Amino acid sequence: MNRSQPASGSPQQPTAGRERVVWIDLFRGAAVLVMIETHVVNTFMATALRAEGWFTVLNYINGLVAPSFLFIAGFVQGMERRPRGLSDTTPGPIATPKPINFARRALRLLGIGALGYALHFPWFELGHGQWDAALRVGSQVDVLQCIAASLGALLFVTWLVQRLRLGDRLWWMATAILLVFTVLVAPTAAICTNLPVPLLAWTNSSTGSWFPLFPWAGFVFAGALAGAASRLRQVDAEAATATTPVAPLAMPNPLAFRSARPMALLVAPLPLAVAAWACRDAQYSSVAPASFLERTAWVFVLAATCEWIAAHRRLPAVVLFAGKRSLTLYVVHLVLISALVGLGVPAQKFPLFAVVAMVGAVAAISLHLTRLVPAKKGLSRMSKVP
C-alpha cells in the first residue's frame, strides 16, 4: 500500500526515507480535478441546463468532492498517531512517526486559513463603500478555513494528550466527540442568527459561507479517525516482521480483507452508501446527520477504490501531480475563474459543449501555472508515510 510512485506513474520499490502514500495523492488529485469541473460548471453553464436529469447525477457526484477533500486532510493527520506500545527506537517498518513540530504546524495552518480569507477579500464592496456587505463577504468561510480550523482542533487535542500524558485512548475519545458534536449540532447551528457576522460565518451558510464548521468539520474528524485506525492496522500487519517485540495492536477486521488492503475500507461502506442513495429523502437538508452519513459512506468507498487502483493499476502522472500540489492548484484555478469573470466572460450563459471545453482549458492552464509555482516543502510532505 505504501509504495513510492515516480513521475511516470508506474510503481517501483520503496526507497529509503519517508514515502508518499500514493493512493492519497491519487484520491486528492482526482478530487481537486473534479473540483475544477464543479466550479467551472457552476460558474459558466447555462441555468436552463440545470433542469436536465443528467445534471442531478452530476451535481450529486460534485457534492462528494468537498467531503473527500476534507476527509483526506483529516486522514493524513490521523496517520501521524503514535501507536501505543511503540518507542522512538522501534526499528523496522513500524517505527513511530516523526515528532510533530506543533508551533510550525500551527503557523502553517494559520497561513492556510489566511489564504482562504485572502481569496474572499471584498475589493468591490470596499471600493463602493458597502461596509456591511464587505464584512459579510470578507468573513465567509471556505474549504481552506474549514480545513485549517479542523486540523487546528486536532492538533490541539494531540498536543494536549502528549503534553499531559493522558494516553492514546483520550485522543480517540476526544476526536470522536468532536465528530459527533459537529454533526449533531449542525441542524441547530444552521438556524442560528444571533451571532456577530464573523462568527456566524463559521456556524452556518447564512452569510454566504460554503463550508462552515457545522457539519463540514465532521469529515475532517472522520478522516482523522480512519487514518489513525489505518495506522494501527499497518502496525498490526507489519509487527510480525519486526525484529523487536511490540505490544499487540489488533484492529477489528470483520471482512478479513487480504493483507492490509484496502486500509481505508475499515467497514463495509458500499452497501451502506447504496442503501442511503436508494432510501434518501430528497427533502432533507445538507446539514442533516443522514446527509453526512450518506456522503461519508461514499467517501470511504472512493478512498478504498483509489487504494485498490494505486495497488493494481498504472497511475496517470497528471492526477498524482494534482494530488501533490493540490493546494496550489486549488488557489490557481479559483483565481483563473475569477479573472475570467472579471474580464467580462458571462456567467451561467454557456451551452454544454462550451462548458466542457472550458473545463478542459481551465484545468490545463491551471496545471501549467501550478508547475511554474515553486512547491512548498511543508505542504509536499502532507501525503508521506509518517
What can you tell me about this protein's structure?
The chain has 386 residues and is mostly helical. 62% of the residues lie in helices and 0% in strands. It contains 16 helices and no strands. The protein has helices spanning 22-44, 53-62, 65-78, 102-119, 123-127, 131-138, 143-164, 168-190, 197-203, 213-238, 269-279, 289-312, 317-324, 326-342, 352-372, 377-380. Residues 1-18, 85-95, 239-267 and 378-383 have low confidence and may be disordered.
Cα separation of the termini: 14 Å
Largest beta sheet, briefly?
A: none
Based on CA atoms alone, the radius of gyration comes out at: 21 Å
Per DSSP, the total helix count is 16
Low-confidence stretches: 1-18, 85-95, 239-267, 378-383
Content-based structural category: mainly alpha
Oligomer: single chain
Secondary structure: number of strands: 0
Overall pLDDT metric: 81
* Shape designation: globular
Helix content: 55-70%
The fraction of residues assigned to DSSP E strands is: under 5%
* Order of helix and strand elements from N to C terminus: HHHHHHHHHHHHHHHH
In brief, what are we looking at here?
By secondary structure, the protein is mostly helical. The chain has helices at residues 22-44, 53-62, 65-78, 102-119, 123-127, 131-138, 143-164, 168-190, 197-203, 213-238, 269-279, 289-312, 317-324, 326-342, 352-372, 377-380.
Keyphrases for this structure?
386 residues; mainly alpha; 0% strand; globular; disordered N terminus
Ordered list of secondary-structure elements with their pairings:
Layout: H1 22-44, H2 53-62, H3 65-78, H4 102-119, H5 123-127, H6 131-138, H7 143-164, H8 168-190, H9 197-203, H10 213-238, H11 269-279, H12 289-312, H13 317-324, H14 326-342, H15 352-372, H16 377-380
Helix pairs in contact: 1-3, 1-12, 1-13, 1-14, 1-15, 3-7, 3-10, 4-7, 7-8, 7-10, 8-10, 11-12, 14-15
